[in-house]
Amino acid sequence: MRDFAYKRNANDVSRNLMTWYMQSKRELPWRQTQDPYSIWVSEVMLQQTRVETVIPYWNRFVEQFPSLHALAEADEQTVLKLWEGLGYYSRARNLQAAVREVAASYGGVVPKTAAEFSKLPGVGPYTAGAVLSIAYNEALPAVDGNVFRVLSRIFLIQEDISKPKTRALFEGLAVSLIPPGIAGDFNQALMELGAVVCMPKNPNCTECPVQQQCMAFAEGMQRELPVKGKKSAPRLSPMYAVLLQRPDGKWAMRKRPDTGLLAKMWEFPTWSQHELSLEDYVEQLGITHKQVEKLQPVAQVDHIFSHLHWQVSVWMGQLIDNTAGDSDQQLIWLSTEEMEEKSLAAVHNKMKLLIKQREGGGASD
Ligand code: SF4
Question: With contact defined as beta carbons under 8 Å apart, do 335 and 259 qualify?
Fold first, then answer.
């Protein structure tokens, strides 16, 4: 970074940004509270998720778990159920593990120092900076994707933001811009600018409060920043899933393992096509081919995780007796009403929809 350019710009950037933010910030529900726990919940939900999506989830979550202790004592499945649809479920599990630790080791008070707060499960440098600056006004940087973009453009920084060492550069710059005593508002102002003005593809430079200071604007390089190394595409993974129904109307489901992808979520039996054929897998569930009637493909469901692209070939089959599959201890047989109580990841909710469409169609025949 060029020192001269930085010094000339920094004060004006901070001042103009704050004036704009105080006049035009969005009235978001978590901006109406100073409660560190509620702010923490909002920051965890906002990772990888749009503000408009988060608002109803945050409202429901803090209504059901109004305090850190309420979340610490809650049943994990209830928490996951409330998180359903937000995705990235490890965020919810980590949040609950972290508040339990705060309840047990810090008397239920969210720690004020980054050193303590960052030790909690799921708390990275961004979350620590955002929560502690907003809740306690600690002068810490909170550099997320929005802030990388805004700062790289204003100060024409062309370092690759996907490299870990670049974070330190941006954090140093962000903290040097924080005006005394208003760290929380300033960090939110930077994020807000990235969210509503300095957007990734179409920055609205004509309405921008720091246009005069923006070096990328002066050079016409807004759309080339930030510089980000190419991520490899998610790996394609062909999967099978089976929706098996007993004569009593119940469907085969099971809970995923305690660790790994979609840990502890409920699913219809799903596996990699590289592992086993459809027939072998169904037999492994303790269901012979004579016990299955009309096993047929009903849909292909796609779901993209950050590193993996599941392409699921979904098959549906009717069983002819209510004891089929009894030997598999992991299978649980549930009606569609009972499924509503369980937390399903988005990919399995798509399959649940197939069942509901089928049952709905059956009812109207
Ligand atoms: S002038 Fe344009 S590129 Fe620069 S910070 Fe503002 S919106 Fe972003």
Answer: no
Instruction: Indicate if 43 belongs to the active site.
Output: yes
Tell me, using a 6 A CB cutoff, whether residue 151 lines ligand 1.
Answer: no
- The DSSP bridge partners found for residue 300 are 313
Q: Do 318 and 250 form a contact (C-beta atoms < 8 A)? A: no
The answer to whether 321 and 247 have CB atoms below 8 angstroms apart is: yes
- State in Å: Cα 205 to ligand 1 middle: 5
Summarised one tens digit per residue, pLDDT across range 311-358 is 999 999 999 988 888 888 889 999 999 999 999 988 999 999 999 988
> In 3D, which of 166, 304, 325 has the Cα closest to residue 243?
325
Nearest atom, ligand 1, residue 203 CA: 7
For the chain, give the number of residues. Answer: 365
Q: How many angstroms separate the CA atoms of 261 and 4, rounded?
A: 48
Give the Å distance between the CA of 176 and the centre of ligand 1.
19
Exposure string of 128-157, with b = 16+ CB inside 10 Å and e = fewer, is: bbbbbbbbbbbbbbbbbbbbbbbbbbbbbb
Ligand 1 mutation pick, 205, 213, 224, max ligand atoms within 8 A of CB: 205
Tell me how far the alpha carbon of residue 24 lies from the centroid of ligand 1, in angstroms: 16
Render pLDDT for 162-180 as a digit per residue (tens, 0 to 9). 988 999 999 999 999 999 9
Of 43, 138, 171, 192, the active-site residue reads 43
What residue's CA is closest to ligand 1, atom 3?
222
Helix (H) or strand (E) holding 298, with range, is strand 292-304
Model pLDDT, residue 9: 78
- Name the H helices within the chain: 3-24, 36-46, 51-64, 68-73, 76-83, 90-105, 114-117, 125-136, 145-154, 164-177, 183-196, 215-219, 278-284, 336-339, 346-364
**Which tokens sit at 102?**
């705060």
Alpha carbon of residue 341 to chain centroid? 21
| Neighbour count for residue 314 (Cβ, 10 Å) | 20
Domains and CATH numbers, the chain: 3-224 (1.10.340.30), 235-364 (3.90.79.10)
